[in-house]
């Protein structure tokens, strides 16, 4: 009889255990599945765009088939090799009926509740777009009354305030979600966007959704898609300097801007706030910005080219060459020397089709944030 030393036995046991662990890990890996996931813009209380195709997208294991159901439609989509999938709903009629959007795949189900169909508008810009209804109510009793009367369940808001990103991000968090307009929620909504939404909802009698990506204190550059910076020499040079994070160089550039931090750099907020939702179907966009491109030390001479880049860039990214874009011309400025120049640049931006400008010259206020957002929104 051959005897086996204790060392050899221990070595054999270790090898067997290693094989078992490896086999278990490989087996576990082979059956592990990526969780079925919808893009973060799809969450409870949302508004889907009426009367045009509606992309619905997300992630799952490659090769699987995802079924999307909404209203009377059932659409299937195969998951791509990179784990992404997209189903496109056929154009929907406006409806304030609370329905469910369901995505299902191999026993997994994701349900989005209280979904209505109407017009969705993208709202962006800097602090005058970000200024909320509660802030307006500190100046006007009318806004206080509007808050108390804001039982308007067919108006929905979605705030996106992700920090800047060097590269386009793939998704936004679901946690913030959509908010239904009520006296408890409306105080935090963009005031200009709220009065815009209320006017349209009353006139059209359809649900209105607002997706707000504004950020206070920022120039136009961070909201412009990278590809659109190639449309003008000043913009192209800004992009090159931005990639080097040369804040001083951008400021000294003729037609440049006094970039104060990374949030001011070309494309950075588009990457984090708009790129992740560029497939989301919308009716149009509203824009209220300009102050940070014509303040002390700013050079607004090429702002019209930047507006053109913003509008054409958004239209390209959103896949709609006729996307309506309405913007607010800065109000009377008093001693602010750069504002008249920028207002003229804004006027010249109306040369693009499907654009409109809200003239607010008579809404002068000593504060850089005029509290009258009633007339702006209308």
From TrEMBL:
The chain crosses the membrane at residues 12-32. InterPro entries: SASA, SGNH_hydro_sf, SIAE. One of its GO terms (biological process) is carbohydrate metabolic process. One of its GO terms (molecular function) is sialate O-acetylesterase activity. It comes from the Bacteria. Residues 279-366 form the Sialate O-acetylesterase domain. Keywords: Hydrolase, Membrane, Transmembrane, Transmembrane helix. This is Sialate O-acetylesterase domain-containing protein. It comes from Anatilimnocola aggregata.
